[in-house]
Amino acid sequence: MSVTSPVTNLGKIPATIITGFLGAGKTTLLRHVLEHAGGRRIAVIVNEFGALGIDGDTLRACGITGCDDEDIVELANGCLCCTVADDFVPTMEALISRPNPPEHIVIETSGLALPKPLLKAFNWPSVRARLTVDGVIAVVDAPAVHAGRFADDPEDVARQRAADPSLDHDNPLAEVYEDQLMSADLVVLNKTDLLTTAEVDALAVQIAGIIPRAVKLVRTTEGRLDPAVLLGLGSAAEDDLAARPSHHDAMDGEHEHDDFDSFVVPIGAQASAEALVARLAAVTEAHDVLRMKGFAVVEGKSMRLAVQGVGTRFRQQFDRAWKPGEPRAGSIVVIGRQGLDRTAIAAAINDATGAV
Ligand SMILES: Nc1nc2c(ncn2[C@@H]2O[C@H](COP(=O)(O)OP(=O)(O)OP(=O)(O)O)[C@@H](O)[C@H]2O)c(=O)[nH]1
Protein backbone atom coordinates (compact mmCIF):
# COMPACT_ATOMS: atom_id res chain seq x y z
CA MET A 1 0.00 0.00 0.00
CA SER A 2 1.37 3.39 -0.81
CA VAL A 3 1.04 6.64 1.05
CA THR A 4 0.80 9.81 -0.97
CA SER A 5 1.72 13.36 -0.11
CA PRO A 6 -0.29 16.39 -1.19
CA VAL A 7 1.04 18.51 -4.01
CA THR A 8 1.02 21.63 -1.85
CA ASN A 9 4.39 22.72 -0.52
CA LEU A 10 5.90 20.96 -3.48
CA GLY A 11 9.49 19.92 -2.94
CA LYS A 12 9.27 20.17 0.83
CA ILE A 13 9.56 17.07 2.99
CA PRO A 14 6.34 16.48 4.96
CA ALA A 15 6.64 16.04 8.73
CA THR A 16 3.94 14.58 10.92
CA ILE A 17 3.86 15.41 14.62
CA ILE A 18 2.37 12.79 16.93
CA THR A 19 1.35 14.23 20.24
CA GLY A 20 -0.72 12.81 23.10
CA PHE A 21 -0.43 12.39 26.85
CA LEU A 22 1.88 9.89 28.57
CA GLY A 23 0.97 6.35 27.59
CA ALA A 24 -1.82 7.28 25.15
CA GLY A 25 -0.40 4.92 22.52
CA LYS A 26 1.87 7.14 20.38
CA THR A 27 4.71 4.62 20.01
CA THR A 28 2.19 1.84 19.31
CA LEU A 29 0.63 3.92 16.52
CA LEU A 30 4.02 4.86 15.12
CA ARG A 31 5.10 1.26 15.06
CA HIS A 32 1.97 0.39 13.10
CA VAL A 33 2.73 3.16 10.60
CA LEU A 34 6.28 1.85 10.11
CA GLU A 35 5.05 -1.70 9.66
CA HIS A 36 2.63 -0.58 6.95
CA ALA A 37 4.72 2.10 5.27
CA GLY A 38 4.82 0.18 2.01
CA GLY A 39 8.53 0.78 1.44
CA ARG A 40 8.29 4.54 1.90
CA ARG A 41 11.45 5.93 3.53
CA ILE A 42 10.25 7.33 6.85
CA ALA A 43 12.59 8.85 9.42
CA VAL A 44 11.44 8.98 13.00
CA ILE A 45 12.35 11.39 15.76
CA VAL A 46 11.35 10.24 19.23
CA ASN A 47 11.45 12.53 22.20
CA GLU A 48 11.00 11.36 25.76
CA PHE A 49 10.59 13.08 29.07
CA GLY A 50 12.54 10.40 30.93
CA ALA A 51 16.31 10.08 30.77
CA LEU A 52 16.19 6.60 29.19
CA GLY A 53 15.34 6.23 25.51
CA ILE A 54 12.75 3.48 25.92
CA ASP A 55 10.58 4.39 22.92
CA GLY A 56 13.48 4.43 20.45
CA ASP A 57 14.60 1.09 21.78
CA THR A 58 11.08 -0.32 21.54
CA LEU A 59 10.83 0.73 17.89
CA ARG A 60 14.26 -0.69 17.06
CA ALA A 61 13.36 -3.99 18.77
CA CYS A 62 10.39 -4.47 16.45
CA GLY A 63 12.58 -5.58 13.52
CA ILE A 64 10.54 -3.88 10.78
CA THR A 65 12.07 -4.55 7.36
CA GLY A 66 13.42 -1.41 5.73
CA CYS A 67 13.45 0.51 8.99
CA ASP A 68 17.13 1.12 9.72
CA ASP A 69 18.54 2.16 13.07
CA GLU A 70 19.83 5.41 11.56
CA ASP A 71 16.24 6.32 10.64
CA ILE A 72 15.25 6.43 14.32
CA VAL A 73 16.70 9.46 16.06
CA GLU A 74 16.22 9.83 19.78
CA LEU A 75 16.05 13.12 21.59
CA ALA A 76 15.89 11.85 25.15
CA ASN A 77 15.98 13.67 28.45
CA GLY A 78 13.85 16.73 28.02
CA CYS A 79 10.82 17.98 26.22
CA LEU A 80 11.19 19.07 22.62
CA CYS A 81 9.22 22.17 23.43
CA CYS A 82 12.09 23.35 25.67
CA THR A 83 14.97 22.17 23.52
CA VAL A 84 13.80 23.26 20.09
CA ALA A 85 16.85 25.41 19.31
CA ASP A 86 19.50 23.14 20.80
CA ASP A 87 18.25 19.73 19.77
CA PHE A 88 15.36 19.76 17.37
CA VAL A 89 16.45 22.24 14.69
CA PRO A 90 20.00 20.79 14.32
CA THR A 91 18.52 17.28 14.17
CA MET A 92 16.11 18.25 11.41
CA GLU A 93 18.87 20.05 9.52
CA ALA A 94 21.07 16.95 9.71
CA LEU A 95 18.23 14.67 8.54
CA ILE A 96 17.36 16.73 5.48
CA SER A 97 21.01 17.21 4.55
CA ARG A 98 21.59 13.47 4.21
CA PRO A 99 22.58 12.32 0.72
CA ASN A 100 19.42 10.23 0.73
CA PRO A 101 16.95 12.29 2.76
CA PRO A 102 13.75 10.73 4.11
CA GLU A 103 10.51 11.02 2.15
CA HIS A 104 8.52 11.67 5.31
CA ILE A 105 9.51 12.51 8.88
CA VAL A 106 7.40 11.47 11.85
CA ILE A 107 8.07 13.14 15.19
CA GLU A 108 6.77 11.50 18.35
CA THR A 109 6.77 14.12 21.07
CA SER A 110 7.04 13.33 24.75
CA GLY A 111 3.70 12.85 26.49
CA LEU A 112 4.25 16.09 28.39
CA ALA A 113 5.39 18.25 25.48
CA LEU A 114 3.34 21.19 24.31
CA PRO A 115 3.13 21.01 20.52
CA LYS A 116 2.97 24.76 19.86
CA PRO A 117 6.66 25.63 20.43
CA LEU A 118 7.56 22.71 18.18
CA LEU A 119 5.20 23.95 15.48
CA LYS A 120 6.80 27.38 15.71
CA ALA A 121 10.20 25.80 15.02
CA PHE A 122 8.95 24.92 11.54
CA ASN A 123 9.10 28.64 10.81
CA TRP A 124 12.86 28.79 11.44
CA PRO A 125 14.28 29.74 8.01
CA SER A 126 16.54 26.68 7.68
CA VAL A 127 13.65 24.34 8.52
CA ARG A 128 10.89 26.18 6.66
CA ALA A 129 12.83 26.14 3.40
CA ARG A 130 12.84 22.33 3.24
CA LEU A 131 10.05 21.05 5.51
CA THR A 132 6.35 21.48 6.05
CA VAL A 133 4.12 20.14 8.83
CA ASP A 134 1.93 17.59 7.12
CA GLY A 135 -0.26 17.26 10.17
CA VAL A 136 -0.49 17.16 13.95
CA ILE A 137 -2.02 13.94 15.24
CA ALA A 138 -3.23 13.90 18.83
CA VAL A 139 -3.51 10.40 20.28
CA VAL A 140 -5.99 10.23 23.14
CA ASP A 141 -6.08 7.57 25.85
CA ALA A 142 -9.85 7.08 25.77
CA PRO A 143 -10.21 5.21 29.10
CA ALA A 144 -7.99 7.76 30.88
CA VAL A 145 -10.18 10.65 29.70
CA HIS A 146 -13.28 8.67 30.59
CA ALA A 147 -11.88 8.09 34.09
CA GLY A 148 -11.50 11.86 34.50
CA ARG A 149 -7.73 11.90 34.67
CA PHE A 150 -7.58 15.21 32.82
CA ALA A 151 -10.49 16.83 34.60
CA ASP A 152 -10.27 19.55 37.18
CA ASP A 153 -11.71 19.22 40.64
CA PRO A 154 -14.51 21.84 40.31
CA GLU A 155 -14.45 22.78 44.01
CA ASP A 156 -10.71 23.21 43.97
CA VAL A 157 -10.83 25.42 40.88
CA ALA A 158 -13.56 27.59 42.42
CA ARG A 159 -11.50 28.00 45.59
CA GLN A 160 -8.31 28.87 43.71
CA ARG A 161 -10.12 31.22 41.30
CA ALA A 162 -11.36 33.21 44.27
CA ALA A 163 -7.70 34.02 45.00
CA ASP A 164 -6.51 34.25 41.40
CA PRO A 165 -9.21 35.08 38.81
CA SER A 166 -6.84 34.32 35.91
CA LEU A 167 -6.57 30.69 36.99
CA ASP A 168 -7.47 28.34 34.18
CA HIS A 169 -7.05 24.80 35.56
CA ASP A 170 -6.02 23.29 38.86
CA ASN A 171 -4.92 20.08 37.19
CA PRO A 172 -1.68 20.42 35.18
CA LEU A 173 -2.65 17.28 33.27
CA ALA A 174 -5.69 19.13 31.96
CA GLU A 175 -3.55 21.88 30.46
CA VAL A 176 -1.18 19.53 28.66
CA TYR A 177 -4.10 17.44 27.38
CA GLU A 178 -5.99 20.48 26.07
CA ASP A 179 -2.91 22.00 24.44
CA GLN A 180 -2.27 18.78 22.60
CA LEU A 181 -5.88 18.59 21.39
CA MET A 182 -6.02 22.23 20.36
CA SER A 183 -2.99 21.83 18.10
CA ALA A 184 -4.40 18.79 16.30
CA ASP A 185 -5.39 18.24 12.68
CA LEU A 186 -6.55 14.73 13.48
CA VAL A 187 -7.58 13.20 16.80
CA VAL A 188 -7.05 9.47 17.30
CA LEU A 189 -9.25 8.11 20.05
CA ASN A 190 -7.19 5.08 21.08
CA LYS A 191 -7.77 2.13 23.45
CA THR A 192 -11.43 1.91 22.52
CA ASP A 193 -11.25 -1.79 23.47
CA LEU A 194 -11.46 -0.67 27.10
CA LEU A 195 -14.74 1.27 26.76
CA THR A 196 -18.26 0.70 25.48
CA THR A 197 -19.37 2.27 22.19
CA ALA A 198 -21.65 4.66 24.07
CA GLU A 199 -18.76 5.79 26.28
CA VAL A 200 -16.58 6.39 23.21
CA ASP A 201 -19.43 8.33 21.53
CA ALA A 202 -19.68 10.59 24.57
CA LEU A 203 -15.92 11.20 24.55
CA ALA A 204 -16.00 12.15 20.88
CA VAL A 205 -18.59 14.82 21.64
CA GLN A 206 -16.62 16.06 24.67
CA ILE A 207 -13.40 16.33 22.65
CA ALA A 208 -15.08 18.15 19.77
CA GLY A 209 -16.21 20.70 22.36
CA ILE A 210 -12.62 21.43 23.39
CA ILE A 211 -11.17 22.02 19.91
CA PRO A 212 -12.16 25.38 18.43
CA ARG A 213 -11.99 24.12 14.81
CA ALA A 214 -13.66 21.28 12.97
CA VAL A 215 -11.17 18.44 13.34
CA LYS A 216 -11.55 14.87 12.17
CA LEU A 217 -11.68 12.20 14.86
CA VAL A 218 -11.00 8.51 14.31
CA ARG A 219 -11.39 5.67 16.79
CA THR A 220 -9.04 2.76 17.10
CA THR A 221 -7.39 0.09 19.20
CA GLU A 222 -3.61 -0.41 19.34
CA GLY A 223 -3.19 2.49 16.86
CA ARG A 224 -4.25 0.21 14.01
CA LEU A 225 -4.94 2.84 11.37
CA ASP A 226 -4.07 2.83 7.69
CA PRO A 227 -1.08 5.18 7.23
CA ALA A 228 -3.07 6.77 4.39
CA VAL A 229 -5.41 8.14 7.09
CA LEU A 230 -2.51 9.54 9.11
CA LEU A 231 0.04 10.72 6.57
CA GLY A 232 -0.66 13.12 3.72
CA LEU A 233 -2.99 15.48 5.60
CA GLY A 234 -1.26 18.45 3.96
CA SER A 235 -2.18 20.86 6.76
CA ALA A 236 0.89 23.17 6.58
CA ALA A 237 0.26 23.79 10.28
CA GLU A 238 3.25 26.16 10.47
CA ASP A 239 1.15 28.69 8.48
CA ASP A 240 -1.83 28.29 10.75
CA LEU A 241 -0.50 28.82 14.28
CA ALA A 242 -3.11 31.36 15.34
CA ALA A 243 -5.85 28.75 14.90
CA ARG A 244 -4.13 26.52 17.45
CA PRO A 245 -4.41 28.28 20.80
CA SER A 246 -2.19 27.16 23.67
CA HIS A 247 -2.18 27.77 27.40
CA HIS A 248 1.50 28.36 26.82
CA ASP A 249 0.76 31.50 24.75
CA ALA A 250 -0.10 33.36 27.95
CA MET A 251 2.45 31.75 30.20
CA ASP A 252 5.52 33.79 29.41
CA GLY A 253 8.07 31.00 29.19
CA GLU A 254 6.76 28.86 32.05
CA HIS A 255 6.10 25.25 31.24
CA GLU A 256 3.34 23.08 32.59
CA HIS A 257 5.65 20.13 32.70
CA ASP A 258 7.61 21.84 35.45
CA ASP A 259 4.77 20.24 37.39
CA PHE A 260 6.05 16.76 36.54
CA ASP A 261 8.99 14.68 37.64
CA SER A 262 10.80 11.69 36.15
CA PHE A 263 13.57 9.45 37.39
CA VAL A 264 15.15 6.09 36.66
CA VAL A 265 15.22 3.19 39.14
CA PRO A 266 17.83 0.47 38.46
CA ILE A 267 16.47 -3.01 39.22
CA GLY A 268 18.26 -6.31 39.76
CA ALA A 269 17.43 -9.66 38.13
CA GLN A 270 13.82 -10.62 38.81
CA ALA A 271 12.54 -14.01 39.94
CA SER A 272 9.39 -13.65 37.82
CA ALA A 273 7.86 -11.20 35.33
CA GLU A 274 4.44 -11.43 36.98
CA ALA A 275 5.80 -10.66 40.46
CA LEU A 276 7.66 -7.61 39.14
CA VAL A 277 4.60 -6.23 37.38
CA ALA A 278 2.38 -6.83 40.42
CA ARG A 279 4.89 -4.92 42.54
CA LEU A 280 5.11 -2.03 40.04
CA ALA A 281 1.32 -1.79 39.93
CA ALA A 282 1.16 -1.66 43.73
CA VAL A 283 3.82 1.10 43.82
CA THR A 284 1.92 3.03 41.14
CA GLU A 285 -1.26 2.85 43.19
CA ALA A 286 0.40 3.77 46.48
CA HIS A 287 2.36 6.75 45.08
CA ASP A 288 -0.01 7.99 42.37
CA VAL A 289 2.54 7.40 39.60
CA LEU A 290 1.38 8.33 36.08
CA ARG A 291 3.66 6.20 33.95
CA MET A 292 6.32 3.49 34.32
CA LYS A 293 8.28 1.84 31.55
CA GLY A 294 11.52 -0.02 31.24
CA PHE A 295 13.30 -3.31 30.85
CA ALA A 296 14.20 -6.12 33.23
CA VAL A 297 16.36 -9.21 33.46
CA VAL A 298 14.37 -12.28 34.50
CA GLU A 299 16.32 -15.17 35.98
CA GLY A 300 16.64 -18.13 33.62
CA LYS A 301 15.44 -16.15 30.54
CA SER A 302 17.64 -15.23 27.59
CA MET A 303 15.17 -12.56 26.48
CA ARG A 304 14.78 -9.02 27.77
CA LEU A 305 11.49 -8.25 29.53
CA ALA A 306 9.86 -4.99 28.38
CA VAL A 307 7.44 -3.49 30.90
CA GLN A 308 4.87 -0.75 30.23
CA GLY A 309 2.55 0.80 32.81
CA VAL A 310 -0.05 3.52 32.26
CA GLY A 311 -1.61 4.27 35.61
CA THR A 312 -2.12 0.88 37.21
CA ARG A 313 -2.66 -0.89 33.86
CA PHE A 314 0.49 -2.88 33.04
CA ARG A 315 1.67 -4.98 30.12
CA GLN A 316 4.85 -6.98 29.81
CA GLN A 317 6.50 -9.04 27.09
CA PHE A 318 9.87 -10.59 26.34
CA ASP A 319 10.65 -8.35 23.39
CA ARG A 320 14.09 -9.45 22.23
CA ALA A 321 17.17 -11.47 23.18
CA TRP A 322 19.87 -9.66 25.12
CA LYS A 323 22.60 -8.75 22.64
CA PRO A 324 26.10 -10.18 23.02
CA GLY A 325 28.12 -7.78 25.16
CA GLU A 326 25.04 -5.77 26.18
CA PRO A 327 24.96 -5.23 29.95
CA ARG A 328 22.17 -7.38 31.38
CA ALA A 329 20.78 -4.66 33.58
CA GLY A 330 17.22 -3.62 34.24
CA SER A 331 15.80 -0.17 34.89
CA ILE A 332 12.40 1.43 35.17
CA VAL A 333 11.54 5.03 34.31
CA VAL A 334 9.01 6.50 36.73
CA ILE A 335 6.99 9.61 35.76
CA GLY A 336 4.50 11.47 37.92
CA ARG A 337 3.51 14.81 39.39
CA GLN A 338 6.21 16.82 41.17
CA GLY A 339 6.76 15.67 44.73
CA LEU A 340 7.13 11.96 44.09
CA ASP A 341 8.98 10.29 46.96
CA ARG A 342 11.90 8.98 44.91
CA THR A 343 13.57 7.13 47.77
CA ALA A 344 10.42 5.34 48.88
CA ILE A 345 9.44 4.44 45.30
CA ALA A 346 12.91 3.09 44.45
CA ALA A 347 12.94 1.06 47.67
CA ALA A 348 9.46 -0.34 47.04
CA ILE A 349 10.24 -1.26 43.42
CA ASN A 350 13.28 -3.19 44.62
CA ASP A 351 11.59 -4.74 47.64
CA ALA A 352 10.86 -8.34 46.77
CA THR A 353 8.87 -8.70 50.00
CA GLY A 354 6.15 -6.61 48.41
CA ALA A 355 6.08 -3.70 50.90
CA VAL A 356 5.18 -0.38 49.29
N1 LIG B 1 -5.66 -1.90 25.99
C1 LIG B 1 -4.97 -1.18 25.12
N2 LIG B 1 -3.68 -0.89 25.38
C2 LIG B 1 -3.00 -0.15 24.47
C3 LIG B 1 -3.59 0.31 23.27
N3 LIG B 1 -2.67 1.04 22.58
C4 LIG B 1 -1.54 1.00 23.31
N4 LIG B 1 -1.72 0.28 24.45
C5 LIG B 1 -0.76 0.01 25.52
O1 LIG B 1 -0.56 1.22 26.26
C6 LIG B 1 0.76 1.28 26.74
C7 LIG B 1 1.41 2.60 26.31
O2 LIG B 1 1.51 2.61 24.90
P1 LIG B 1 2.64 3.47 24.16
O3 LIG B 1 2.41 3.29 22.70
O4 LIG B 1 3.97 3.16 24.71
O5 LIG B 1 2.21 4.93 24.62
P2 LIG B 1 2.99 6.31 24.38
O6 LIG B 1 1.96 7.33 24.15
O7 LIG B 1 4.02 6.13 23.31
O8 LIG B 1 3.71 6.52 25.79
P3 LIG B 1 4.78 7.68 26.21
O9 LIG B 1 5.77 7.76 25.08
O10 LIG B 1 5.37 7.18 27.48
O11 LIG B 1 4.01 8.91 26.41
C8 LIG B 1 1.48 0.06 26.19
O12 LIG B 1 1.46 -0.95 27.17
C9 LIG B 1 0.63 -0.33 25.00
O13 LIG B 1 0.72 -1.71 24.68
C10 LIG B 1 -4.98 0.00 23.02
O14 LIG B 1 -5.59 0.39 22.03
N5 LIG B 1 -5.60 -0.74 23.99
UniProtKB/TrEMBL annotation:
Q: Name one GO biological process term.
A: cobalamin biosynthetic process
Claim: Chaperone is one of the keywords in the record? yes
What keywords are assigned to this protein?
A: Chaperone, Hydrolase, Nucleotide-binding
Q: Which reaction does it catalyse?
A: GTP + H2O = GDP + phosphate + H(+)
Q: Which domain of life is it from?
A: Bacteria
Look up the record and report any one GO term of the cellular component aspect. cytoplasm
- Transmembrane parts of this sequence: none
Q: Which InterPro entries match?
A: CobW, CobW-likC_sf, CobW-like_C, CobW/HypB/UreG_nucleotide-bd, P-loop_NTPase, Zinc-reg_GTPase_activator
Q: Cite a single Pfam family from the UniProt record.
A: CobW_C
Q: Where is the CobW C-terminal domain?
A: 260-353
Q: What does this protein do?
A: Zinc chaperone that directly transfers zinc cofactor to target proteins, thereby activating them. Zinc is transferred from the CXCC motif in the GTPase domain to the zinc binding site in target proteins in a process requiring GTP hydrolysis.
Q: Member of which family?
A: Belongs to the SIMIBI class G3E GTPase family. ZNG1 subfamily.
PANTHER family found in the cross-reference section = COBW DOMAIN-CONTAINING PROTEIN, COBW-RELATED
* Protein name, per record: Cobalamin biosynthesis protein CobW
- Tell me the name of the encoding gene: cobW
